[in-house]
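Now read the record:
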Amino acid sequence: MGKNQWVSPRENGWAVHGEGNTRDTKHFNTQKEAADYARNIATNQKSEVIVQGTDGRIRSKDSYGNDPCPPKDREH
């Protein structure tokens, strides 16, 4: 299983970065573009996508790996 991918707000848009990394993987103008890119990475690495809002609080989490305890409700 790979690193979880975070979508975080930045001064000039949004960034995708691997969990624990000090550098961003890539920057985007919109949150949707960043989330789509992170979802692609997470699907390939069988990891999770964590999306933060503009205030830095977690808005959503999605697992793209083998989740032994899948949630009963589906966000996407």
Summary: The CA atoms of residues 4 and 19 lie 5 Å apart.
